[in-house]
Amino acid sequence: MRPETTTARLEARLPADIHALLKRAAEMQGRSLTDFVVTAARDAAVQTIENSEIIRLSIDDQRKIADSLLTPPQPSVALRRAFKHRQRLLG
After folding, report:
1. Which end of the chain is less enclosed by CB atoms within 10 A, N or C?
2. pTM > 0.90: yes or no
3. Which residues contact 31 (CB under 8 A, 6 or more apart)?
4. Which of 43, 42, 21 is nearest to 33 (CA)?
5. Rounded to 5 degrees, what are φ and ψ at 89?
6. 23 Cβ contact list (under 8 Å, min separation 6)
7. Are 36 and 22 in contact (CB under 8 A)?
8. Cα–Cα distance between 67 and 18 in angstroms, integer?
């Protein structure tokens, strides 16, 4: 027995030339228009989210972060003062 897949409906009005373009592309891939549009929209959504949430660093920047984590700098005078102040406030 297969679990039921939940679906939601999406309606969109688009210019006839865009509809024809999407339909042609779907036919070229041997897919339905719905499958083509859903897949393209999903891929675009995933890419947008990744571009927003994933930070890409150069090798040099990766090394700088790793070095900072492995050998952190000594706390500054202001930071030591802030820690003492916090200790007095919170006990």
Report:
1. N
2. no
3. 39
4. 21
5. -70, -45
6. 33
7. yes
8. 51
Q: What is the mean pLDDT of residues 31-55?
A: 96
The two structure tokens encoding residue 12: 């969109």
Domain range summary for the chain, segments of one domain joined by + = 16-71
Taking the C-alpha atoms of 46, 52, 57 and 61 in order, what is their torsion angle to the nearest 10 degrees?
Answer: -160
The 3-class SS string of the chain reads CCCCCCCCCCCCCCCHHHHHHHHHHHHHCCCCHHHHHHHHHHHHHHHHHHHHHCCCCCHHHHHHHHHHHHCCCCCCHHHHHHHHHHHHHHC
Q: Which residue in this structure is represented by tokens 């373009």?
A: 21
Distance CA 61, CA 46 (A): 25
Instruction: Give pLDDT tens digits for 14-29.
Output: 999 999 999 999 999 9
Alpha-carbon distance of 82 to 76, in angstroms, equals 10
